[in-house]
Design brief:
Strand 3 and strand 4 form a beta hairpin. The protein has 1 helix and 8 strands; from the N terminus they run αββββββββ. It is mainly beta and 189 residues long. An 8-stranded antiparallel beta barrel has the order 1-2-3-4-5-6-7-8. The protein has one domain: Porin (Beta Barrel), CATH 2.40.160.
């Protein structure tokens, strides 16, 4: 009987050690978010690099860095060129609402810091439907705010996973920016 209890205690110890090692994990990934710069105009893509750490079974943290370079025409008149750049840093604390087989449905919230650089139209003169003259202005500033998100993370293998997310970033000057993203992650630990 003692031997059975010893084997059982050893199995519990090994299982708890393996579980503790699996709980803490680090992942790196790349993704792309579909976003609007000025609702409903200027819909474009924002490439991002992401790092995620799992602190406990349902608690995660992440840091995302992104860069956007958009060169196009003013969506209102389609005749005035514009240039928009964003450098983004988003941090988030995440809580898993549902977990099954290592896949998670999570809510996320945290601070965001974006550098905004826009060369956009300030004044446009018309002759009928034709733009005859325009003035542009350069707006460059740092913008701070917060982000809220909902994400579904699906494990494909022991090391690989994909994640889809919906995120809303609210910044002091830029205000509301919704993002819809898709990421691929590799577990490094």
């Amino acid at each position: 009987m003692r031997n059975i209890l010893r084997v059982f205690a050893l199995l519990l110890l090994v299982n708890s050690t393996i579980s503790a090692q699996q709980l803490k994990s680090d992942r790196v990934g790349m993704g792309i978010s579909y976003l609007t710069l000025d609702l409903p105009d200027d819909i474009t893509f924002l490439p991002k690099f992401s790092y995620q750490h799992q602190f406990k079974q349902r608690i995660f943290g992440s840091a995302d860095i992104g860069y956007l370079y958009y060169k196009g025409m003013d969506n209102t008149f389609q005749q005035v060129p514009e240039l928009r750049k964003r450098f983004t840093v988003d941090l988030a604390a995440k809580f898993s609402l549902f977990e099954m087989g290592g896949s998670h449905l999570r809510i996320a919230a945290g601070p965001s810091l974006w550098h905004v650089s826009d060369l956009v139209s300030k004044k446009i003169n018309f002759n009928g439907n034709e733009v005859t003259d325009y003035e542009r202005e350069n707006r460059t500033y740092w913008d701070f705010g917060g982000n809220l998100g909902l994400e579904l993370d699906i494990n494909l293998s022991k090391r690989l996973s994909v994640m889809g997310n919906f995120q809303i970033v609210y910044l002091n000057k830029t205000e509301l920016t919704p993002l819809l993203g898709l990421y691929a992650f590799y577990r490094i630990r």
